[in-house]
Design brief:
The protein has helices at residues 2-5, 19-29, 49-63, 80-92, 106-116, 134-143, 164-173, 177-187, 199-206, 215-222; strands spanning 9-11, 37-42, 68-73, 96-102, 122-125, 146-149, 191-192. By secondary structure, it is α/β, with parallel strands linked by helices. The longest helix has 15 residues, at 49-63.
């Protein structure tokens, strides 16, 4: 349904156990492979150089494709550097187009890039109006890494859809609270991968590029930042 609506980036992971479903959907959509951007992530089962090599092959097989556009290390595992070495080799071999990380905080990121040589293209982290992590965004961008939000709707940790401020601002632009929440992140240079199982919501999530938030609205939304994780990970 997402592909039919015009989505061209699909985010999956070994942890989600749905790479095979994603691969099947892309194949059945009949959309050219080069027109779809696939992101996947290596789980803790790939916690060594050798296991990562095997893990990449498994993901390619499940996704039923010759290459993956972006492959991330799902969490800051102790073995992240040797996992990353295998990712870099897969990138050189054309099996992966870009490599990155996920859920690395500022300290973990800085320690990682001191030793990894190839700067991660992306760091996928918790980011939403209640904890946008703008300082982390600035740090990442200063080193050449794009921040991406995996939880722009808080994954149910907060009732973002009924947030009074977002509803009020939404009325001004004829948009939903969800669309305002996504637009706020996008205007702050944070890529978003909103999750939805409803076709109407999929449509709405894509329809955020025909307006711009007024400066006052941005400042008001900024005040929602509680400056701490809703997941307790940081």
């Amino acid at each position: 349904a997402a592909l039919d609506l015009g989505y061209r980036l699909i985010d999956t992971a070994q942890m989600y156990e749905n790479e095979d479903v994603v691969g099947k959907a892309i194949l059945e959509s009949k959309i050219a492979r080069e027109a779809v951007f696939i992101t996947s992530k290596l789980y803790r089962d790939c916690n060594s150089y050798k296991k990562t090599k095997t893990g990449i092959e498994k993901s390619l097989k499940k996704l039923n494709c010759d290459y993956i556009d972006l492959m991330l290390i799902h969490e800051p595992y102790a073995e992240a550097l040797e996992m990353y070495k295998a990712l870099k080799e897969a990138c050189s071999a054309g099996l992966i187009r870009a490599i990155g990380i996920s859920n690395f905080n500022a300290e973990q990121y800085l320690k990682f890039i001191e030793a990894c040589e190839t700067i991660p293209a992306v760091n996928q982290v918790e980011s939403h109006v209640y904890f946008p992590q703008l300082p982390l965004r600035d740090l990442l961008l200063s080193h050449g890494t794009q921040m991406q939000s995996w939880g722009p709707f808080t994954e149910g940790k907060a009732d973002i859809f009924n947030e009074p401020l977002l509803i009020q601002i939404g009325k001004k632009y004829n948009k939903s609270s969800a669309q305002i929440a996504l637009r706020y992140l996008v205007e702050n240079g944070i890529a978003v991968i909103p999750k939805s199982a409803h076709q109407e919501h999929l449509k709405q999530n894509l329809d955020i590029f025909d307006f711009k938030l007024a400066k006052a609205d941005v400042e008001n939304i900024k005040a929602l930042d509680c400056k701490h994780s809703l997941f307790g990970w940081y």
